[in-house]
Amino acid sequence: GQQVQQSPASLVLQEGENAELQCNFSSTATQLQWFYQSPGGSLVSLLSNPSGTKHTGRLTSTTVTKERRSSLHISSSQTTDSGTYLCAPYMGYKLTFGTGTSLLVDP
Amino acid sequence: EAAVTQSPRSKVAVTGGKVTLSCHQTNNHDYMYWYRQDTGHGLRLIHYSYVADSTEKGDIPDGYKASRPSQENFSLILELASLSQTAVYFCASSDWTGGDERLFFGHGTKLSVL
Predict the structure, then answer these.
(1) Which of A51, B4, B95, B114 is exposed most, by the fewest CB atoms within 10 A?
(2) Alpha carbon distances (Å) from A10 to A20, A41, A52, A76
(3) Chain A closest-CA separation from residue B31 CA (Å)
(4) By percentage, how much of chain B surpasses pLDDT 70?
(5) What is the pLDDT of residues A14-34, one digit of tens each?
(6) Other CB atoms closer than 10 Å to residue B72's CB: what's the count?
(7) Do the Cβ atoms of A50 and A67 come closer than 8 Å?
């Protein structure tokens, strides 16, 4: 089955710094989504990106589908960005989640 | 914004007992999913459904049943709860229309089996 590796496992930033999160997956995927999980546990879809580069707000995702990798760039981090970021490639209407990158942004 | 409601928000169950987790969505999404989350394992798919009265096995279906009586409702049933089923359970819905699909999650149900 699909295996998803995310790196780094954890990251600590000072407010205002940028973050680069990586996602590598083992099998071909038709799409890929990035999710944010708050410290309280709620999950929110950030963006979906099958290939190429996609921007939303301070987030930029770049996916190279044939190389089975994606990245999420967070610019000018804020304390409210703290939480866990999950990537999930999908195939056949099923998403497989990585274990996430835990981000802590200090003021 | 899509709305997915789970109940209960938390539950304590006894080993061997029956547990039913409920999920309701109000956005006419065809697809609904049940995931469990454990520390170190991320989210793993238990069951999913793409139409009422039909369910499909996910990656870890053993020990779980699912029921989709209507488009809006999707339940997860643990007939004989075990200690290893202690986890946080998330329901989600989506409508795969070929565009910018997104998955919408409920707030989760924290299940403790004692």
Answers:
(1) B114
(2) 11, 17, 25, 18
(3) 8
(4) 95
(5) 999 999 999 999 998 888 999
(6) 17
(7) no
Judged by a CB distance cut-off of 8 A, whether residue A1 touches chain B is yes
Q: Which residue has the tokens 């339940």?
A: B75
The DSSP code sequence of B36-75 is: EEETTTEEEEEEEEEETTEEEE-S--TT-EEE-SSSSEEE
Quickly state the pLDDT bin for B99 (edges 50, 70, 90).
low
Q: By CB neighbour count within 10 A (0-12 exposed, 13-18 middle, 19+ buried), where does B44 fall?
A: middle
Phi and psi at B6, nearest 5°, equal -110, 145
Question: What pLDDT shows up at residue B39?
Answer: 80
Per-residue pLDDT at A16: 97
The verdict on B90 touching A (C-beta cutoff 8 Å) is yes
pLDDT digit string (tens) for B42-96? 899 999 999 999 999 999 999 999 999 999 999 999 999 999 999 999 999 987 7
Task: Compute the distance between CA of residue A48 and CA of residue A54 in angstroms, rounded to an integer.
Answer: 8
Scanning every residue of chain B, which has its alpha carbon at the shortest distance from the alpha carbon of A93? B96
Is the Cα torsion angle B22, B27, B28, B33 positive or negative in sign? negative
pLDDT at A54: 93
Q: Is the minimum CB–CB distance between B57 and chain A shorter than 8 Å?
A: no
Tokens of A77: 């981090």
Query: Helix %, strand %, coil % for chain A, to 5?
Result: 5, 60, 35
* B97 CB-near residues (< 8 Å, 6+ apart): none
